[in-house]
Amino acid sequence: VCLIYLSVYKMAKLQGFDFWRKTLKEACFVVAPMVDQSELAWRLLSRRHGAHLCYTPMLHAQVFLRDANYRRENLYNEVCEEDRPLITQFCANDPDVFIQAALLAQNYCDAIDLNLGCPQMIAKRGHYGAFLQDEWELLQKMVRLANEKLSVPITCKIRVFEDIEKTVSYAQMLEKAGCQLLTVHGRTKDQKGAMTGIASWDHVREAVNIPVFANGNIQHLTDVERCIKETGVQGVMSAEGNLHNPALFEGRSPPVWEMADEYIEVVRQHPPCNLSYVRAHLFKLWHHTLQIHHDLREELAKVKTLESLANVSKQLRLRCQEEIARGNYMDKESSLPFPHWICQPYVRPPPKDVSVKGKVQDKEVKTTGCQKRVLEDTTLSAQILSKNKQKKRSRNPNKNFSPDQKPKYIKCEQCGNPKGNKCVFNLCRGCCKKKAYKEVANCLSHGLKFKTKAEAKKAQESKRDAEIEMEKNCSPPQSLQHQTTLLQEYKA
Ligand SMILES: Cc1cc2nc3c(=O)[nH]c(=O)nc-3n(C[C@H](O)[C@H](O)[C@H](O)COP(=O)(O)O)c2cc1C
Ligand SMILES: *[C@@H]1O[C@H](CO)[C@@H](O)[C@H](O)[C@H]1NC(C)=O
Ligand SMILES: *[C@@H]1O[C@H](CO)[C@@H](O)[C@H](O)[C@H]1NC(C)=O
């Protein structure tokens, strides 16, 4: 009975909201397709930290079709039970090639996505991604054919036009052609800051009768929640925010080493993983720390094995922990909201800096390094001030050595009371407790274990969920109704 039920279920292709509800399990926290970055290990890490749905990196339909190695390396060898629901993304500009490639991929994923948003491809190949957004007839053909021929739904990831009306017609055209879910990258090239896509998300979502995911500069769980609340989209997709903080969807900003260690462990458990992906992930995770520890940045760029990458990551952790243990960490010069060893958004320098990127960044790096050393020196001198005060003052009469001008302790970022010595949030106990509770995090220095407790509870719940799910799937159809009701009641 179970087998018959499953095969019937598989034949009836779910559409739109049914697809989102049943196959995607109402996914609202989504990890974006990312070339060289949304590989299996990263997806698994992200899923363990709150992501509901992931996309493969964009695959080239033509290469996928002709190259069996490419298929194995990028999809077939990455099959993993934990890694569902999963959407495979292609770029393509030929309906037949696209369908042939998608047919070879459909048994390994829950939907096929067509990339209509990649601007770099214009320059490279001339006829993919965002370039296609002006070729509506061709797009209609590709989506219609995919909707007819594939056993899984077809979805699209689009960029907005300057003109919202045009974006809306575009979305409706794709829906009419058979697209079952739309991701809208709502940021035009000139827009910066969170939530800039809000108008287009809102309009598109209202204009179509399929689920919509919003994408573009979502960096905090609060952005996610606000976006869903204000625009009514079904989900929110993150790329850069996720790369810099894979626990973004948990609403946590964990220490970088926690994520780096866990990621490396996942990579070990799921070989082989292309080392250039691992290296790139570690560069992004450790971004802020590497601005300070230049020697390890070079090391990270140079080493050639997973174990040595892991070793560099470990050295970075030790440096951070030494810094924390010394307790004289002060980063008043830094504009970062958290210390450099905390996962946090990477805010890009404004465009005018980008045009002279190398120079400006180097200069910035040097200044930061310098200022940090000055800071450490002054902290040190504060301790031996009484002995050397006169001598120093005579050498540097303009400098203020008055001890009461210097903080004797590091202040809690929120209330100004002394912060916990090793507090991961840089807060005093009271503020830490509030934050850790809100974000369901641990702070071992303050003896707070909200995360550990929540995880234990979640593990227990998901075990129960899994039991119910198993019963549901393998019961005769007449009892399904009952089981589903049970599940709904349980979830409510
Ligand atoms: C490293 C990287 C790789 C990306 N690769 C893809 C890709 O393969 N396919 C795609 O549709 N978009 C790709 N994008 C774009 C993202 O999916 C996303 O649309 C964009 O970064 C905006 O989201 P964000 O502000 O959350 O980063 C990539 C982005 C990054 C940062
Ligand atoms: C690793 O990925 C890079 C970038 O995509 C690619 O050029 C290289 O061939 C890959 N290496 C292996 C061993 O697959
Ligand atoms: C680990 O890295 C450190 C610092 O770069 C280096 O001195 C040490 O030899 C490395 N150890 C191993 C086992 O690779």
The overall pLDDT average reads 80
How are the strands ordered across the major sheet? 1-2-4-5-6-7-8-9
Radius of gyration from CA coordinates: 26 Å
Overall tally of structural domains: 4
Number of strands: 11
Describe what you observe in this structure.
- The chain has 492 residues and is of the alpha/beta class.
- The protein has four domains: 13-252, Aldolase class I (TIM Barrel, Alpha-Beta Barrel), CATH 3.20.20; 254-351; 363-400, no CATH class; 410-455, no CATH class.
- Helices cover 53% and strands 9% of the residues.
- It is built from 23 helices and eleven strands.
- It has helices at 2-11, 16-23, 40-48, 61-66, 68-74, 95-105, 120-125, 136-149, 164-177, 198-207, 221-231, 240-244, 256-269, 275-285, 287-290, 294-302, 306-326, 351-354, 357-383, 385-395, 429-438, 450-474, 477-491; strands at 29-31, 53-55, 59-60, 86-91, 111-116, 154-159, 182-185, 212-215, 235-238, 442-443, 448-449.
- An eight-stranded parallel barrel has the order 1-2-4-5-6-7-8-9, surrounded by six helices.
- α3 links the parallel β1 and β2 (53-55).
- α6 packs parallel to α8 (136-149) and α13 runs antiparallel to α17.
- It is globular and about 65 Å long.
- Bound molecules: flavin mononucleotide (FMN) and 2-acetamido-2-deoxy-beta-D-glucopyranose (2 copies).
- Residues 32-35, 37, 57-58, 89, 115, 117-118, 157, 185, 215-218, 238-241 line the site of flavin mononucleotide (FMN).
